[in-house]
Design goal:
The chain has seven helices and six strands, in the order αααβββαβααββα. The chain is α+β, with helices and mostly antiparallel strands.
Length: 201
């Protein structure tokens, strides 16, 4: 019969063998997560290979924007960042002749700040901010089964997805995302304007 001391020592050895290693406890890579979540995303990372639905309900081929630089923004009407509509419209107006367009995708995912219908959204944007850049129907931007194909491609290509309203993706002439900007990046910021100008070259 084994002594109590030997039994205790054996138990301690067993517990040590089952303990997690430092590697198990290390934070997982944030950038690696979308690869699993987006397994069903389009094979192409070109946003311009996809279709979307306009705010009026019609189908839009994103191929219409091939050769242009676009800024894709998830927008909302009741957000602290809603005032950015004015800056987005200004960017669109000033750079449209150079081959640039802002594309607005309403989303109600963040704080429930886009609860209205597409007609409500269109009326609000037009009357309040004079928006005439292309607007689309409400979408889901977060990874999951309901995620918009456009946002699935953007997420897969960049490893970034919106964390709040008015996040921005700069997309090149070939439909490949160039950069991701969080909500706090103002449309008129030097950083964003310079990146747009560089992409238009």
């Amino acid at each position: 019969m084994k002594s109590p001391t030997i039994l205790i020592f054996s138990a301690l050895l067993a517990l040590t063998a089952c303990a997690p290693t430092p590697a198990d406890n290390a934070p997982k890579s944030v950038a690696a997560a979308p690869a699993t979540e987006q397994a069903a995303a389009p094979a192409s990372n070109s946003v311009y290979d996809l279709e979307a639905t306009s705010i009026d309900g019609g189908k839009v081929s994103m191929a219409d924007y091939k050769g242009k630089v676009t800024l894709i923004v998830n927008v909302a009407s009741r957000c602290g960042y809603t005032g950015q509509y004015a800056g987005l419209q200004k960017l669109h107006t000033e750079m449209a002749d150079k081959g640039f367009a802002v594309l607005g995708f309403p989303s109600n995912e963040f704080g429930g700040q886009e609860p209205g219908s597409e007609a409500d959204i269109k009326q609000f944007c037009s009357s309040k901010f004079g928006v005439d850049f292309p607007m689309f129907s409400k979408v889901e931007t977060k990874a999951g089964s309901g995620q918009s194909p456009v946002y699935a491609a953007l997420t897969q290509a960049t490893g970034d997805q919106p964390s709040w309203n008015f996040c921005k993706y700069l997309v090149g002439k070939d439909g490949a995302p160039i950069a991701f900007y969080k909500s706090g990046t103002r449309p008129g910021s030097a950083e964003l304007r310079e990146a747009i100008e560089a992409a238009l070259q």
